[in-house]
Design brief:
This protein has 271 residues and is mainly beta. It contains 2 helices and 17 strands. Strands 1, 4, 5, 7, 12, 13, 14 and 17 form an 8-stranded antiparallel β-sheet that branches. Strands 6, 8, 9, 10, 11, 15 and 16 form a 7-stranded mixed β-sheet that branches. A two-stranded antiparallel sheet has the order 2-3. The protein is globular. The relative contact order is 0.18.
């Protein structure tokens, strides 16, 4: 945790740099020139503000879904606003929409999933990644059924290529992707249990040839992965995908970056 340095700000959980989120303290209320005050990832809005610095947590962020059902951003049961500023809103098609849980999230609202419920971000250049990706989500499983269950994945079915993924398979938590030659799966030894929140961060780094997974701020997996990420034409699916089963539980605070976050940055995301 980083202490709040701006008077009057309600900091809560802080990601990365508290002061940078509001700019240099100046007026004691909202940072210089009315810039946004320090906030946790769960409250950040990365839309550009004239005259304000880019918040540190927003840099290279390509999708940020709070799942709070905010009417100010036209959110409803079928539409989730992307707070990264990239316009990567997520949509679902009834009747296969998750159920909004306004007070059941890790931070505010969340969505409760039961197969085949899913949200999807359409394919686009900003979410089709080539060199590195970091995926972050809060996940509360009701059950941990054996078989591949999707928390986050960007995937196309024909030919099968998965640009990146954050699934579970029973009680194992994984980070993975699929190339034209097959799946590259990196998973924990197991031990996850239903009925509690997990903060999951998966990192795929082509430059370092590594795959890493953090659970509740702790690195639990760090393995060599020489295969390169392959871009695909599929959507980013949350909670389910057309090629894999869906989760049984709640998902909150989905975030995707187009780079490999450092260990310190990932630790700062966890309260």
């Amino acid at each position: 945790m980083i202490a709040c340095a701006i008077a009057g700000a309600s900091c809560g959980r802080i990601g990365f740099d508290a002061v940078a989120l509001g700019g240099p303290p100046g007026d004691g209320a909202g940072g210089d020139g009315g810039c946004p005050v320090a906030a946790g990832l769960d409250t950040v809005d990365c839309a550009p503000v004239a005259g304000c610095p880019v918040p540190a947590v927003c840099k290279e962020l390509v999708a940020l879904l709070h799942f709070d059902g905010d009417p100010a951003h036209a959110e409803d049961a079928t539409h989730v606003h992307d707070f990264s500023g990239r316009g990567n809103d997520a949509m679902c098609v009834a009747p296969d929409c998750p159920v909004a849980v306004p007070t059941g999230g890790k931070f505010g609202g969340a969505f409760a999933y039961a197969e085949p419920d899913a949200f999807a971000i359409p394919n686009g250049p900003s979410v089709s990644l080539q060199h590195a990706v970091t995926m972050s989500a809060w996940f509360y499983p009701n059950t941990l059924t054996t078989s591949w269950r999707i928390i986050i994945t960007k995937i196309q079915s024909t030919p099968l290529i998965a640009n990146y993924g954050l699934p579970h398979n029973g009680d194992t938590l994984c980070v993975n992707f699929a190339t034209s030659t097959g799946w590259k799966n990196h998973c924990t030894a197991g031990g996850a249990t239903p009925g509690r929140w997990y903060h999951l961060v998966g990192v795929l780094d082509d430059d370092a040839d590594r795959a890493s997974l953090y659970v509740d701020g702790v690195k639990v997996l760090d393995e060599a992965e020489p295969a390169a990420l392959e871009q695909d034409a599929g959507a980013v699916w949350i909670g389910w995908s057309p090629t894999n089963a869906g989760v049984d539980g709640r998902i909150d605070e989905v975030a995707i970056w187009n780079r490999a976050l450092t260990a310190a940055e990932i630790t700062a995301l966890y309260p």
